[in-house]
Input
Amino acid sequence: MGEREERRRIRLDQPRSGRRAWLRLPAYDPEAFGRLSEQIARFLGTGRFIVWMTVVVVVWIAWNILAPGPLRFDQYPFIFLTLALSLQASYAAPLILLAQNRQDDRDRVNMEQDRARSERNIADTEFLTREVAALRQGLGEVATRDFLRSELQGLLKELEEQRRELAPRVEDV
Output
């Protein structure tokens, strides 16, 4: 028995791998695949893609109609072109759906963050409203500048009236 088999026997707490090393698939990174699918879907949704796809189809059809017989690779019903377009569509649809799902996930997270931010803003606004109300109540008990002015003007008028009343008496003396 080799050292490798002895190690397998020692580690009874772990299940044995059912696949052999040569059957294992390469590591799969779903995030990288998602980013790639979004890039492809973003490109498929552009005018540039439609223009290039139209150019390819027109050149394909023109070549297979106008080229000499031995150079044609897809005869009139253009079955190979149909197959290529079907293959492109069969890959494009799932990639677009995957990109949409990822965008939905981002939108959901953004909505949750917006909702939390809105709740904080509402709480802050309610707090500030209570504070402003408390300040108004406090100011109701404090003399304002206009109130003091009117009181001082009233006192000044009273003093002037008293001076007028006393002025004739002082002249008499």
User: Anything to note?
Assistant: The helical segments are 3-10, 30-44, 47-66, 79-141, 145-172. Residues 30-100 form one domain. The chain is about 75% helix and 0% strand. The CA atoms of residues 79 and 85 lie 10 Å apart.
